[in-house]
């Protein structure tokens, strides 16, 4: 389990307060997963007044904006249950340096490892590309991704001033964040251009971020480079962009479903779909994003709980940096019993980790689409009477050691706060409408987000190719890693099929099952039909495999359409195929676009 991270201020009094708080609340009984603690931060008497003034100032500013503002659209990566989080790719500096940052609504600072860091872990793999003509070779090597201020022509340190803590030399502002699971991050504050990728219509913006000098605990060991803080606070990337007037005061997250990596994120306003349901969110009650949840129904029956069961301390908190969900103990017991009663015919089995007393079931089958026929429907009811439907994938996680088995993803919290992590909002568009103090929910297929949601003030995305009935494909020039123009594909020709090689290292002996599941995942990642993805060849050396895949036209066509071909090529070129960690380590080695041929129907030499 990857718990969320909520920051504490660095003053001595607050640290002492939180240590005492954690000692009294963080211990979990019966070896359950330790709940995520939401510590209160000490503040001045005028804390609420300052927040009210900030919100009022921001809303007045927003009301004066003429027309619509753009938004930043980003794809999310990684598997929620394998990694415990989702990441977005953010670029900082000139020329841009890319980082994979955890999307965290419970953090208020965005930070990445600094080149001067004295204690930072090894994080993402760095990808180098070389090659020419129709072939690009991908060399993947382990290298620590660290921001190099000296390499950016637009970087400026945030100079020491009365409103910040300063370094020992009293020259640069510093930050320090310590989290509930006792990891920490500290470093200096800098300002530079932050860009949000090619799919975003928002231009690069100057923003303040943390350049880490020391990281400890889970922060040191995680794959992701750092944190993208979306919480409420002056250093939050959201607050900075909103204060500049470049986006509306809203953002949206959409996580993929069970066994589906990634998702999507929008920084800025969207037009809410008509069937989106909203709950009030009180920014003065808590620094965290909260909703007003009144009750829960399981299989149409209300859980018998006292009034206010989901209204303790901070209320019901949404946090994208938390994996699972945590209810007050009596609420958890009632929910657990209702689920057990509904699936009494399923066999109980031990969980995947003997250190935790997980509640797991076997006999439900591997097909996620069939789970609603076995497990009950759950509804969250808000104070305004609106209801959010939760499917089984919103309260179950797949057992990692038993096929067709699932475990409850809801756990007891040792304090009164209800905490809803990413599992609860899988395949749910969640809009944090901060300007109207509300949070909206829409059950949807997050992989189809762009086709379902209208973006406020956003022009239609630039087509991948010019609309034409001509079957010839010309791909416009793009920027190579060096920044100079180069063609992804030279000249014009019909694309008959695309091949790519993948190196896989796994300890799983059932290669046939792995390759069959990989076929389905690759088709999802490349957004093509399963029948178009074909296994062409496999060579092995001990536990290392070199697999060649082919992407063929959808029958009965004899070529791949312009739009689909370019989308596939760009995804391969940019190493966008993201697979769950259960498949072991993999490297995308090379891809090759082949011209149209009369005979292209080879379906591979391995039968599933």
TrEMBL record:
| SUPFAM superfamilies (UniProt xref) | Acid proteases
One of the Pfam families matching this protein, by short name: TAXi_N
Active-site positions on this chain:
104, 319
Gene3D superfamilies, per database record: Acid Proteases
* Keyword Nuclease among record annotations: no
Which key words are in the record?
Aspartyl protease, Glycoprotein, Hydrolase, Protease, Signal
Occurrences of domain Peptidase A1 (ranges): 86-442
The residues forming the signal peptide are 1-28
GO MF terms, alphabetically ordered: aspartic-type endopeptidase activity
BP-aspect Gene Ontology terms: proteolysis
Q: Which CDD domains match?
A: pepsin_A_like_plant (cd05476)
Homology family? Belongs to the peptidase A1 family.
Q: What is this protein called?
A: Peptidase A1 domain-containing protein
Q: Which organism is it from?
A: Gossypium laxum
Mind giving the lineage of the organism this protein is from? Answer: Eukaryota, Viridiplantae, Streptophyta, Embryophyta, Tracheophyta
């Amino acid at each position: 389990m990857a718990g969320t991270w909520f920051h504490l201020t660095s003053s001595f009094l607050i640290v002492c307060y939180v240590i005492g708080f954690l000692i009294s609340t963080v211990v979990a009984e019966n070896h359950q997963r330790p709940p995520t603690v939401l510590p209160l931060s000490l503040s001045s008497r005028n804390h609420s007044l300052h927040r009210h003034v900030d919100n009022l100032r921001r809303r007045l500013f927003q009301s004066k904006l003429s027309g619509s503002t753009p938004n930043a659209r980003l794809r999310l990566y990684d598997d929620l249950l394998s990694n415990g989080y989702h990441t977005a790719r953010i670029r900082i500096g000139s020329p841009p340096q890319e980082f994979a940052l955890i999307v965290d609504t419970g953090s208020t600072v965005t930070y990445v490892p600094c080149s001067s860091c004295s204690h930072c872990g090894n994080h993402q793999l760095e990808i180098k590309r070389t090659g020419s003509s129709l072939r690009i070779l991908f060399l993947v090597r382990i290298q620590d991704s660290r921001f190099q201020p000296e390499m950016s022509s637009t970087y400026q340190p945030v100079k020491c001033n009365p409103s910040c803590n300063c370094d020992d030399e009293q020259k640069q502002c510093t930050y320090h964040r310590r989290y509930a699971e006792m990891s920490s991050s500290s470093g200096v504050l800098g300002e530079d251009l932050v860009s949000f990728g090619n799919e975003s219509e928002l231009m690069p913006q100057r923003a303040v971020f943390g350049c880490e000098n020391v990281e400890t605990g889970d922060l040191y060991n995680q794959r992701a480079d750092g944190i993208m803080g979306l919480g409420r606070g002056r250093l939050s990337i959201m607050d900075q962009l909103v204060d500049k007037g470049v986006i509306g005061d809203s953002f949206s997250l959409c996580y993929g479903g069970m066994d589906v990596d990634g998702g999507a994120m929008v920084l800025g306003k969207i037009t809410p779909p008509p069937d989106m349901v909203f709950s009030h969110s009180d920014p003065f009650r808590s620094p965290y994003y909260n909703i007003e949840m009144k009750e829960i129904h399981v299989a149409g029956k209300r859980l018998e709980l006292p009034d206010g069961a989901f209204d303790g301390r901070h209320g019901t908190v949404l946090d994208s940096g938390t994996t699972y969900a945590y209810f007050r103990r009596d609420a958890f017991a009632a929910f657990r019993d209702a689920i057990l009663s509904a699936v009494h015919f399923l066999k109980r089995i031990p969980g995947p980790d003997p250190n935790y007393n997980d509640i797991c079931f076997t006999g439900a089958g591997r097909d996620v689409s069939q789970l609603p026929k076995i497990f009950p429907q759950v509804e969250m009811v808000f104070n305004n009477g609106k209801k959010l439907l939760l499917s089984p994938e919103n309260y179950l996680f797949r057992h990692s050691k038993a096929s067709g088995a699932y475990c409850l993803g809801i756990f007891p919290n040792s304090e009164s706060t209800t905490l809803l992590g990413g599992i609860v909002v899988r395949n749910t568009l969640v809009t944090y409408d901060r300007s109207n103090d509300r949070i909206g929910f829409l059950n949807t297929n997050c992989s189809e987000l762009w086709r379902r949601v209208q973006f406020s003030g956003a022009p239609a995305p630039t087509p991948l190719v010019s609309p034409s009935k001509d079957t010839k494909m010309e791909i416009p020039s793009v920027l190579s890693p060096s920044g100079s123009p180069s063609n992804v594909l030279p000249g014009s020709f019909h694309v008959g099929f695309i091949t790519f090689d993948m190196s896989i290292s796994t300890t799983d002996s059932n290669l046939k099952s792995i390759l069959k599941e990989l076929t389905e995942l690759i088709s999802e990642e490349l957004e093509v039909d399963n029948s178009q993805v074909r296994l062409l060849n496999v060579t092995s050396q001990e536990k290392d495999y070199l697999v060649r895949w082919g992407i063929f036209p959808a029958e009965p066509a004899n070529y791949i359409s312009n739009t689909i071909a370019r989308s596939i090529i760009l995804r391969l070129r940019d190493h966008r195929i993201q697979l769950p960690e259960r498949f072991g380590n993999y490297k995308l080695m090379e891809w090759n676009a082949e011209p149209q041929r009369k005979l292209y129907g080879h379906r591979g030499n391995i039968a599933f």
